[in-house]
C-alpha cells in the first residue's frame, strides 16, 4: 500500500514510503531519455557540428590527428567524444592551433585548472604562448568538498597530479578565487577558457572579468553551457547560458554553441545536452 513504511535491513527500521520510489518526474525523465536515444541522429549531429567549425574558420578533420599527437605527447589516450567523455573544447584548441589565428594567440588564460591536463595540452598545442591557469586555493571549502577531494589523502593526490603538470616553463599557476582575477591576472589575453564554477554567482563574475581581460578580436570559451533550465545538475546549470544571452543582447555578438560531446549517453536528451560556447570579443 502506498505510504506504508518499509523496513531497511541496513539501517534498522526507517520510515521510507513506497511513494518515494514512484516519483512521476523521475520516470518522465527516464522515458524522455529512452525516446531521445532512439531518435538520436548522429550523422545529422556531426554535419551540424562540422558546419559550426567551418563558420569559425576551423577544420575539425585536420585537427583530430593533431590533437591525438598532442595528447600522446603528454601521456594521454586519443581523443574520444563518441564512446568516451572527452570534450569538444580540446578539438577546438587543436583546430585553432592549425589556423591562421594561431599566430595571434600568445597569451592564454584558463579559469579552473582542475588536474592541469588542459593547461598542459594548451601549452603543447601553442608552444610559443604563455599559459596562465587559475584555481581555488586549498583553503577554499569548494576545493575541499567537491570532486572527491574531501580527505587529506585525496586532496594531496589531486594537488600532486596538478602541480606535476603546471609547474613547468610557459605555464603560470595562480592559486586564487576567480573573483580576484583582475588583480591576480589582469591580462590582456588572446584566448580565455572558462571552466570554473558554472553556477551563479561564479559564472557571472567569470564572464565579466574575462570580457575585460580579453583583447579585441580575442576568443572567450565557456564549458558546460546548458540552455534548458530543466537540464541543470549539481555542477552546471542554465545560468551560464543566461549570462551569455545577456551579454550577446547588449554587445551584438553571436555566440557559437558546440555540442560538448557526441556520445549519446550524454547528448541524446536535448534537455540535458551540454555545449561549449565560443565568443569573439569585438
Highlighted features:
disordered N terminus; Rossmann fold; alpha/beta; 282 residues; 2 domains; 7-stranded mixed beta sheet; 41% helix
Brief summary:
The protein has eleven helices and nine strands. By secondary structure, it is an alpha/beta fold. It folds into two domains: 1-39, no CATH class; 42-280, Rossmann fold (3-Layer(aba) Sandwich).
Describe the structure.
- The protein has 282 residues and is of the alpha/beta class.
- The longest helix is centred in the first third of the chain and has 16 residues, at 24-39.
- The N and C termini lie far apart (63 Å).
- α5 (117-125) links the parallel β3 (107-111) and β4.
- The chain has helices at residues 24-39, 42-55, 60-73, 88-98, 117-125, 141-145, 152-166, 181-184, 202-213, 239-251, 264-267; strands spanning 5-8, 12-17, 107-111, 130-135, 171-175, 189-194, 214-225, 256-259, 275-280.
- It has eleven helices and nine strands.
- It has two domains: 1-39, no CATH class; 42-280, Vaccinia Virus protein VP39 (Rossmann fold, 3-Layer(aba) Sandwich), CATH 3.40.50.
- It is 41% helix and 19% strand.
Which helices and strands occur, and which strands form pairs?
Blueprint: E1 5-8, E2 12-17, H1 24-39, H2 42-55, H3 60-73, H4 88-98, E3 107-111, H5 117-125, E4 130-135, H6 141-145, H7 152-166, E5 171-175, H8 181-184, E6 189-194, H9 202-213, E7 214-225, H10 239-251, E8 256-259, H11 264-267, E9 275-280
Parallel strand pairs: 3-4, 3-6, 4-5, 6-7
Antiparallel strand pairs: 1-2, 7-9, 8-9
Helix pairs in contact: 3-4, 4-5
Amino acid at each position: 500500500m502506498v505510504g506504508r513504511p518499509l523496513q531497511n535491513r541496513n539501517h534498522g527500521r526507517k520510515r521510507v514510503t513506497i511513494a518515494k520510489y514512484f516519483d512521476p518526474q523521475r520516470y518522465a525523465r527516464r522515458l524522455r531519455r529512452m525516446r531521445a536515444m532512439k531518435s538520436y541522429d548522429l550523422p545529422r549531429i556531426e554535419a551540424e557540428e562540422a558546419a559550426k567549425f567551418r563558420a569559425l574558420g576551423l577544420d575539425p578533420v585536420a585537427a583530430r590527428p593533431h590533437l591525438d599527437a598532442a595528447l600522446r605527447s603528454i601521456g594521454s589516450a586519443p581523443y574520444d567524444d563518441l564512446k568516451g567523455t572527452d570534450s569538444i573544447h580540446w578539438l577546438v584548441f587543436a583546430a585553432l592551433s592549425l589556423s591562421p589565428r594561431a599566430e595571434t594567440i600568445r597569451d592564454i588564460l584558463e579559469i579552473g585548472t582542475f588536474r592541469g591536463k588542459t593547461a598542459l595540452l594548451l601549452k603543447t598545442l601553442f608552444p610559443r604562448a604563455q599559459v596562465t591557469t587559475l584555481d581555488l586555493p586549498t583553503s577554499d571549502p569548494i576545493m575541499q568538498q567537491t570532486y572527491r577531494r574531501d580527505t587529506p589523502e585525496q586532496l594531496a593526490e589531486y594537488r600532486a597530479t596538478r602541480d606535476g603538470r603546471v609547474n613547468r616553463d610557459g605555464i603560470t599557476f595562480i592559486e586564487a578565487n576567480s573573483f580576484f582575477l583582475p588583480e591576480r591576472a589582469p591580462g590582456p589575453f588572446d584566448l580565455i577558457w572558462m571552466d570554473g564554477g558554472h553556477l551563479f554567482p561564479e559564472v557571472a563574475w567569470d564572464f565579466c572579468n574575462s570580457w575585460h581581460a580579453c583583447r579585441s578580436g580575442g576568443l572567450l570559451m565557456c564549458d558546460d553551457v546548458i540552455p534548458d533550465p530543466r537540464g541543470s545538475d549539481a555542477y552546471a546549470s542554465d545560468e551560464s547560458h543566461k549570462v551569455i544571452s545577456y551579454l550577446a543582447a547588449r554587445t551584438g555578438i553571436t555566440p557559437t554553441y558546440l555540442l560538448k560531446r557526441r556520445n549519446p549517453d550524454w547528448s541524446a536528451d536535448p534537455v540535458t545536452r551540454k555545449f561549449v560556447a565560443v565568443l569573439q570579443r569585438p
